[in-house]
Design goal:
- By secondary structure, this protein is of the alpha/beta class.
- The chain is built from nine helices and nine strands.
- It has helices at residues 22-30, 73-86, 104-114, 133-144, 163-172, 191-204, 243-250, 255-272, 292-297, and strands at residues 8-15, 48-53, 57-63, 91-97, 121-126, 151-154, 216-224, 231-240, 275-284.
- The longest helix is centred in the last third of the chain and has 18 residues, at 255-272.
- It is globular.
- Residues 36-46 and 66-70 have low confidence and may be disordered.
Amino acid sequence: MTSPDSHRAGFACFVGRPNVGKSTLMNALVGTKVAITSSKPQTTRRVIRGIVHRPDAQIIIVDTPGLHRPRTLLGERLDSLVLSTLTEVDAIAFCVPANEAIGKGDRFIAGKLAAVKKTPVIAVVTKCDLASRDQIAQQLVAVSEIGEFADVVPVSAQSGEQLDVLSDVIVSHLPESPPLYEDGQLTDEPEQVLVGELIREAALEGVRDELPHSIAVVVDEMMTREDRDDLLDIYAHMFVERPSQKAIVIGHKGERLREVGTRARKQIEALLGTRVYLDLRVSVAKDWQRDPKQLRRLGFYD
C-alpha cells in the first residue's frame, strides 16, 4: 500500500495517430509550451519530455511522433522511436479524438499496444470541447471495444476539463519515488532543439499540405552578443527537399520568410526570456527524408 504522504514519480508516454492532440495535451498538463503544435499531421519529430510537478508526484510526459504506417526512411525511424519508447515508460496514454470515428490508424496502434504486456495503457479521449456529450459517450464505448485499458478518461486540453482527473490517473500508475527532476524544470530538451522546433512550427503555419514533412530545422549557433548581455544571436537553417518548396517557404520577395522569422522570434523570446536576433536561411537538401546520411546530419539518428 502507498502511504498518504508518499511521493510518486515516473514516465508516461503519449501515443496516437498523427494530429490527435498529443502535443497540445502535454503542453496543457505541463502548463507551458514544450512541444510544437500544428493542425498539420506528423509535426512532432522527436521524443520530447515535459515535466509536471505536483506536491505528491512528478510526471515526466514523453510526447512522441504520431504512429502510422511509414512511407519513408524518416517515417520508419519515427515509428521505431515510438515503439522503443513504449517499453521504457511506467504508463502509456493512448490518445483518440472525441470528434472523429475510430479508424484503421487507431486500431493499428491499439494492436501495437496490446503487445506491450507489462505497462498499463490509459485510453484518453481528447478534444472533448469539439464534441457533444452524446458523441463523447459513444466514443468512450467505441474506444473500450478496441483494446483492454487500465482506465478510459475523456479530456479537453483547450478548456482544461478533466485534466486534473487524467493527471491523477497517470500518477496512480507511477512507482513510489522521490522527484527525478529539479522543481521548476519543465523539460529536459536542450534549448537549441526547442528553438529549432519553434522555428519549424512557425514555418508550418499556412503552407501547403505536403510541406510539413519536408521541413527540417538545424540551429547552427546560439550565443550572447559580445557587447550586449540582453541579446541572443541565433543562426538557423531550414532545409526543404526541392527548389519549388524553397520558393514557397521564402515567398514573394522574401515576405513569407520574414513572417516566419518574426513569429518564431516572438515564441523564442517568450521561451528564453531574452531578446533575440534570428538569422534564418533556407537550403535544399534533396530527398533528405529518404537519405540516411542527410537524416543523421539533420538529427534523426539510427
